[in-house]
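Changelog note: in this version the structure field was regenerated for every chain. One regenerated record is shown below for reference.
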Amino acid sequence: MNPPPLDLHAHIDVTIAAEELTALGAIVFVATRTLDEAANAIRRNDVTAIWGVGCHPAVAAAHKKFDADRFAELSAQSPYASEIGLDGGAKVPIEAQRRTFDAILRSLAESPRIASIHSYRATAEVLGCLEAQPVQGAILHWWLGDAEQTARALALGCWFSVNAASVRKEVFSRIPLDRLITETDHPFGDRRNGASARPGNVASAERAIASEYGLDATAVRTQMWSNMADLVGEAGCASLLPRPIRLQLMASGGQ
């Protein structure tokens, strides 16, 4: 039996019914924008959705209420940090964003997590932060870096998550297959999917990967789970994942 679709970055209302999440038929990692949202999200006990601890770089209120100790306390209860990073197009001053991101990276250096990192119009700055404070488990979501920046990211050990809007031949030509994981970034990264846009529906990203690397759909899904097993192993946070997901990772080659 094929493993379920794997969505490494999506946005979902924290009040969604558990039955609706299960009905997606996918494993979805859900990003939060503020620590208050994260505090509500991680109280849930979903088995197919993993709720992250985030501070969106473009949300001013998230920075105003950010507290490094609270981030660490919440992060101790989740294997996933998202949405974090820098946004060069935001109204929030980049200096304020960097203070928050640097504090988060210091926390993640001590307690690694699967860290989904936002870098819109700030790819060079994000890489500079990661070079100054390396972390395990860093995955660059919706990556728009050029060839030189992508090489820097690979040298740092970064992973990359791709969605329907970000799949481009030049991206694939620079990134090894074993460093990719699918995402939707619902409802932003899957708009071109129209009526089929929903968290967990990574079919368009899977098809693009299959076409680029000469694989069939089953091989792509298998590879994504193998990559995920390696990512979780690197971050060392498997114990915080729901048991069904741990079992799937073990079947995919994880510890």
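Spot check on this record: The first helix runs from residue 18 to 23. The chain has one domain: 6-251.
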